[in-house]
Design a protein that fits this description.
Layout (H helix, E strand, L loop, with lengths): L2 H12 L5 H11 L2 H4 L24 H13 L4 E5 L7 H4 L7 E5 L1 H7 L7 E6 L6 H16 L2 E5 L5 H11 L4 E4 L13 H10 L1 E4 L11 H12 L2 E4 L8 H10 L3 E4 L10 H8 L3 E2 L3 H7 L6 H11 L21 H10 L4 E2 H8 L3 H13 L3 E4 L3 E4 L4
Parallel strand pairs: 3-4, 3-7, 4-5, 5-6, 7-8, 8-9
Antiparallel strand pairs: 1-2, 2-6, 10-12, 11-12
Helix pairs in contact: 1-4, 7-8, 8-9, 10-11
Length: about 400
């Protein structure tokens, strides 16, 4: 894409009052973004509606063009894919509202630019920005196990479940794509700066927003249609009823794609969104094998015998007297009884003392040891929750 073509695309994107649907109608009539703005093309403006009929030149267009050209020259594996380009992900052409421009950076973006689009299954993994420790663990475990099976993990780079999903895929040496709601010259949230750099190294970060675009609240629901569109299915790991993850799930369903959800405690606010999705017809997921089946992926024979254990760890009940996969020593009979009393749902100290029969000081000391050993988490409100490890 040369500078003139880039300028025409950016003008189409940045023109005040010109929406994406209007811009696509103009493109269909004019065949190219340059033709939309050629002298004598005023008749096309009527297709854009009265709000944008004059199609004024965006005041920031020259700066946007120069900034974008400088960004493209500033590092390897940086691309701007226009609607219909060879590098534009074909999956996005099938959604009702494909982005006009897609800014992308990373090794996965390079593969797209070279025309490699069909070599991998992609799964969107989304969830709460304020998850429980169990939710974070599930996100990492599922993403890592799925990436080991060749599944690409797409998420939104947000705190919580998104970040854990990216981390799990990276831990497996797999590919992960982050769809963001800002320009690619900034990272939001800032604490994910290092994570973003690692994603670029083995996957991609993509956005439809021009460089310099700040993290505005309405951008994130808008980007969710791209996240759902890139993937074959969406897995909601943990979400409350107001979570933006449910927007992604709804958009995926509207696109005719499968929605899956991991159930949680009936007492957990962070699981109610997942439960609602399951009530509405989402597939209930208890292990990685459920996801692989939905994606029509057959695990290698070498993994078949272990999939029932490793892939279904979130729903698994271990014999606490056996050595766990993390290499810890088997629990004593006394500790095993305490672990059984803990169960797998959040529990308060008083209730745990009543069910275990341990004296307060001894119980508090042992709970601290288990927390330091990574076998339980301390939650807000004085609650404890046992952690399940794959």
């Amino acid at each position: 894409m040369d500078s003139d073509e880039l300028a025409a695309w950016l003008r189409l994107v940045l023109t005040p009052g010109l929406g994406r649907a209007q811009a696509r109608r103009l493109l269909a009539a004019a065949a190219s973004p340059q033709a939309v703005f050629e002298p004598g093309a005023e008749a096309l403006a009527g297709l854009a509606g009265s709000a944008a009929r004059s199609m004024p030149l965006p005041a920031n267009l020259p700066e946007a063009v120069q900034t974008t050209l400088a960004w493209l020259d500033g590092g390897a594996d940086r691309f701007v894919f226009a609607l219909g380009d060879e590098g534009y992900p074909p999956a996005l052409l099938d959604i009702d509202d494909p982005p006009l421009l897609l800014f992308a950076m990373g090794t996965q973006a390079r593969r797209w630019a070279e025309g490699e689009h069909e070599s991998q299954h992609w799964l969107a993994m989304v969830g709460s920005r304020n998850p429980t420790p169990q939710g974070l663990m599930h996100a990492r475990q599922f993403a890592q196990a799925l990436a080991q099976q060749g599944v690409g993990i797409a998420s939104g780079l947000a705190l919580g479940i998104d970040g854990a999903s990216h981390e799990g895929a990276l831990a497996a040496g797999g590919s992960t794509v982050a769809v963001v709601g800002t320009g690619l010259d900034r990272v939001y949230p800032r604490r994910h700066l290092d994570l973003a750099r690692r994603i670029v190294g083995s996957g991609a970060i993509v956005s439809e927003f021009a460089l310099g675009t700040p993290p505005l609240a309405h951008h994130f629901p808008q980007r969710n249609r791209i996240l759902a569109g890139l993937a074959r299915a969406t897995l909601v790991v943990e979400a409350n009823l107001q979570s933006g993850s449910l927007i992604t799930a709804r958009l995926a369903a509207e696109q005719g794609k499968e929605v899956m959800a991991i159930p949680g405690s009936i007492d957990s606010l962070q699981s109610r969104g997942c439960h609602q999705l399951i009530i509405e017809g989402a597939r209930l997921v208890t292990g990685v094998q459920d996801v692989l089946e939905e994606l029509d992926i057959i695990a290698p024979d070498a993994l078949a015998d272990t999939s029932a254990d490793a892939s279904r760890a979130p729903a698994r009940r271990l014999d606490e007297t056996q050595a766990d996969p993390q290499g810890r020593e088997p629990a004593s009979a006394e500790d095993a009884a305490l672990l059984r009393a803990l169960g797998f749902e959040p529990i308060g100290l008083d209730a745990l003392q009543a069910s275990s029969g341990w004296p307060t000081e001894r119980l508090q000391a042992r709970l601290l040891e288990l927390e330091l050993d990574g076998q339980l988490a301390r939650l807000p409100g004085g609650l404890f929750q046992r952690l399940v490890r794959a």
